[in-house]
Specification:
Keywords: Cytoplasm, DNA damage, DNA excision, DNA repair, Excision nuclease, SOS response. Interacts with UvrB in an incision complex. The UvrABC repair system catalyzes the recognition and processing of DNA lesions. UvrC both incises the 5' and 3' sides of the lesion. The N-terminal half is responsible for the 3' incision and the C-terminal half is responsible for the 5' incision. This protein has 21 helices and 19 strands. It is of the alpha+beta class and 603 residues long. It has five domains: 83 residues, GIY-YIG endonuclease, CATH 3.40.1440; 132 residues, no CATH class; 112 residues, Ribonuclease H-like superfamily/Ribonuclease H (Nucleotidyltransferase, domain 5, 2-Layer Sandwich); 165 residues, UvrC, RNAse H endonuclease domain (Nucleotidyltransferase, domain 5); 58 residues, DNA polymerase, domain 1 (Orthogonal Bundle). Strands 12, 13, 14, 15, 16, 17, 18 and 19 form an eight-stranded mixed β-sheet that branches. A five-stranded mixed β-sheet has the order 9-8-7-10-11, sandwiched between helices. The radius of gyration is 32 Å and the shape is flat.
Length: 603
């Protein structure tokens, strides 16, 4: 049931198009949507019953905002801008780049053909995207052999190696006529657009002549080129009667999940297929529209000449925003392709459901067990901290992140502690790392975690809560992870009185805590060993007379450990630019400690 605050705001909603921003109790934006009629759309979330991701989102909404737009088209554009800016948890979000390679013919006096990953408005010709780098490279190498342009760096007064191999037109030693390049480029464009029959005929003729001249190696090379055309360039079935580059989108929705299929049709062939699966909050039509607009808002994505979509999408608005025709075919091969994409989307989603049943209890189910046990609202992100040092030396802290019960290693962070006077002071270490982490998030305007886990007891918890509440004015639940006398996960500490929260040791929630505790400890220890080993080696070298910062850097860069330096000969050490007396002293000083260093490197 909606709160009194939300009920009052619902009564004031306008009958106009625009965007709405749903917020949680921490004032974080968790969902952005658009609507032709804000009053009807936003009210539907709180006045109707929901299941799945919609119900979950609504249960976390504590407030909302609306932004009115003049037209429905403006609301599309604003929604994409807001999603990319705030990255709300419940929205479909796409990565910035596609990573697909393209073949490019450069716009130069002496053009060349190359593989690129970015599209620039530089007058060059771009072909692709290709399914992978290998396919693009193989196609490019074939073109360089059959339709050479320039492969050298330009004029150098003599023919380059590629000219002698027949893979360069000779810009290295002469002026190649522009007409010659234009002729080759026309053939390359024709070939890349799927017209391969002429090339095959020419190669067959060349192979026949090479065989007649008893040039069997040359004939075999041409035979391999013909084979490459047949198995790589022509392996895709021709699915269209025209050469229009087009992308095709279709979807299947069930149980709050949207399964999307994208077909890339190039050179009259289905060159690549992508599939995406998302739990969604809005209608399938609205989510599909948002997905398509985000899809083409990424860098490194060439718009096709035509986009095909299923019936029911706002084709006109999408077309106006993207600047290309957006059509829904009603007959023929294009309609059949849409049907095939829909069938594939359904198969992908059914497979996903089977996998979800097996995974859910270990991830989101485990998160819910933990938040229920702690008496907290549903959460998605946990940030966990641990410290590491050896008798106070080289203190470090590490942070790991778990989102919906799964580790998110891209967000892990390492900290070399700077302000701690007594390096064995757990409270001071905690204060520094918590202060540094969340001061930065505040400055950058990034969302806070739902919970913070500290690997330790009351000391670490109280220090973390002190910084969060009294210095940063943040209200983030802090939970302690306690171990028993066997150094195994035992239970949690939580609340103002740091009370023990016992989880069922056979539950998925307990296993998740165990994974988090083991992972943050592993990450901290690994980082500390690397820092400590480096410092130990540096300190040992500094004790040797004649070894200064430059010599130490040379040895560390070359060998990396005391054992390896000790095993090196005097001549090998001297070859780094170190004088012989110093090299001899390094050898003698470290050799007797080599076994000790070797043993410590395996700890």
């Amino acid at each position: 049931m909606a709160s009194e605050h939300i009920e009052h705001k619902l009564a004031l909603l306008p009958d106009k198009p625009g965007c709405y921003l749903m917020k949680n109790i921490n004032d974080q934006i968790i969902y952005v949507g658009k609507a032709k009629n804000l009053k009807n759309r936003v009210r539907s979330y709180f006045k109707s019953s929901h299941t799945g991701k919609v119900a979950k989102m609504v249960s976390e909404v504590a407030d909302f905002e609306t932004i009115i737009t003049s037209t429905n088209k403006e609301s599309f554009l604003l929604e994409i801008t807001l999603i990319q800016k705030h990255q709300p948890y419940f929205n479909i979000k796409l990565k910035k780049g596609t990573g697909y390679p393209y073949i490019k013919i450069t716009n130069e006096r002496d053009p060349q053909i190359k593989i690129v990953s970015k599209i620039k408005k530089d007058g060059g010709y771009y072909f692709g995207p290709y399914p992978n780098v290998y396919a693009a490279e193989e196609t490019m190498h074939f073109i360089q052999k059959v339709y050479p342009l320039r492969r050298c760096n330009g004029y150098q007064g003599r023919p380059c190696l590629y000219y002698h191999m027949g893979q360069c037109l000779g810009a290295c030693f002469k002026e190649v006529p522009t007409e010659k390049y234009e002729q080759q480029i026309r053939k390359i464009k024709s070939f890349l657009n799927g017209n391969t029959s002429m090339v095959k005929q020419q190669l067959m003729e060349k192979m026949r002549k090479a065989s007649e001249k008893m040039e069997f190696e040359r004939a075999a090379e041409i035979r391999d080129q013909i084979h490459y055309i047949e198995v790589t360039v022509e392996k895709q079935k021709i699915i269209s009667n025209d050469k229009t580059p087009r992308d095709l989108f279709n979807f299947y929705m069930d149980k709050g999940w949207l399964s999307i299929q994208i077909f890339f049709i190039r050179q009259a062939r289905l060159m690549k297929r992508e599939k995406r699966l998302f739990p969604i909050v809005d209608t399938a039509v609205e989510e599909m529209t948002s997905f398509i607009l985000q899809f083409y808002n990424r860098r490194n994505n060439i718009l096709p000449r035509e986009i095909l979509v299923p019936k029911g999408l706002p084709n006109k608005e999408i077309s106006e925003i993207l600047g290309v025709p957006v059509r829904t075919p009603i007959r023929g091969e294009k309609r059949d392709l849409l049907a095939m994409a829909h069938e594939n989307a359904q198969l992908s989603l059914n497979e996903k459901f089977r996998l979800l049943e097996m995974d859910q209890s270990k991830t989101t189910g485990a998160m819910k067990e933990i938040t229920d046990a702690l008496g907290l609202p549903a959460g998605h992100r946990i940030e966990a901290f641990d410290h590491s040092h050896i008798q106070g030396a080289d203190p470090v802290s590490a942070m790991v992140v778990f989102i919906n019960g799964e580790s998110a290693k891209n967000f892990y962070r390492k900290y070399k502690l700077k302000t701690v006077v007594n390096h064995a002071d757990e409270a001071a270490s905690t204060r520094e790392v918590i202060r540094r982490r969340y001061t930065r998030l505040l400055k950058e305007g990034k969302p806070m975690p739902d919970m913070i886990f500290m690997d330790g007891g009351e000391i670490q918890m109280d220090a973390a809560k002190d910084v969060l509440e009294n210095e940063l004015n943040l209200d983030i639940p802090v939970v302690g992870m306690v171990k028993n006398d066997k150094h195994q996960t035992a239970d949690l500490l939580f609340g103002n009185d740091d009370r023990h929260i016992n989880l069922n040791p056979r539950s998925q929630g307990f296993y998740l805590v165990q994974r988090i505790q083991d992972e943050v400890h592993r990450f901290a220890i690994t980082f500390h060993r690397r820092v400590h080993t480096k410092h130990s080696l540096s300190s040992r070298l500094d004790e040797i007379k004649g070894v200064g910062p430059r010599t130490r850097t040379k040895l560390l860069r070359k060998y990396g450990s005391i054992t390896k330096i000790a095993q090196a000969s005097v001549d090998e050490i001297q070859s780094l630019g170190i004088n012989r007396p110093t090299a001899q002293l390094i050898k003698v000083s470290l050799q007797k400690n080599a076994e000790v260093a070797k043993g410590s490197s395996h700890d």
